[in-house]
Write a structure and sequence with these properties.
The protein is α/β, with parallel strands linked by helices. The chain has six helices and seven strands, in the order E-E-E-E-H-E-E-E-H-H-H-H-H. The protein has a four-stranded antiparallel β-sheet, with no helix packed on it. A hairpin with a 6-residue loop joins strand 3 and strand 4. The chain is globular.
Length: 209
């Protein structure tokens, strides 16, 4: 969400931003509206949507992922529908035990060793407590992203609604992806509430012949 790339440069040129770069991108339309400072070619986000495959070498780093998957005994998938990853057979080996934590159905539910229908935060809090570990507190001023951000040029500031921070207080503006995730969380909470379950039950009963 915070990285846009130039695939024309060799090696691929990375532009880390302090804002969500997906505000103008869509399925199979990944141009962000900004251009490479070196060659002038349109920059693209690195998001891989359903029905797509990775277009860049980073940040996915499939070669390293494949090497690690060959050595792993366990694969833990947190909060992923796996609808994209299922198309990468190099990540899946029958000898591995696959554990999934996700609220929705995934293509690997039937073949996994264990599936937990739960929120990742809830599961990981219990795991951390079991291991006697205390998670670090997130501090924006210590976020590594603020140290590697490439600032927008004056022309980009004029033609763009994106904001570049002038201090450690980085302005995170969610794009369509971030907004979609927020909407999904909101709908999930509504559906899990007593009134939401009643509405779902009424719809199911109305759909019956």
């Amino acid at each position: 969400m915070y990285l846009e790339m130039c695939g024309n440069c060799e090696p691929e040129r990375e532009y880390f931003r302090s804002f969500d770069v997906t505000t103008k991108t869509r399925w199979r339309r990944h141009r962000t509206g900004r251009k490479c400072h070196r060659c002038g070619v349109d920059l693209e986000d690195t998001i891989v949507l359903f029905g797509e495959k990775s277009r860049t070498a980073v940040p996915m780093n499939w070669e390293m992922a494949q090497d690690h998957s060959k050595l792993a005994d366990v694969v833990l998938c947190l909060g992923s529908s796996l609808k994209v990853l299922k198309d990468y057979p190099c990540l899946w080996h029958r000898r591995q035990k696959l554990y999934i934590v996700n609220l929705q159905w995934t293509p690997k539910d039937e073949s996994c060793h264990l599936k937990l229908h739960a929120r990742c935060d809830d599961v990981m809090q219990r795991v951390m407590a079991l291991l006697n570990l205390i998670p670090d507190t997130f501090l924006l001023e210590k976020d590594t992203l603020t140290k590697i951000v490439v600032p927008l040029r004056r022309r980009e500031l004029t033609n763009s609604s994106d904001q570049t921070p002038s201090s450690a207080e980085v302005a995170h503006q969610p794009g369509w992806l971030g907004q979609g995730v927020k909407g999904l969380i909101k709908r999930s909470k509504e559906e899990s509430s007593p009134s939401g379950r009643k509405r779902k039950k009424r719809k199911s009963e109305a759909a019956l012949p």
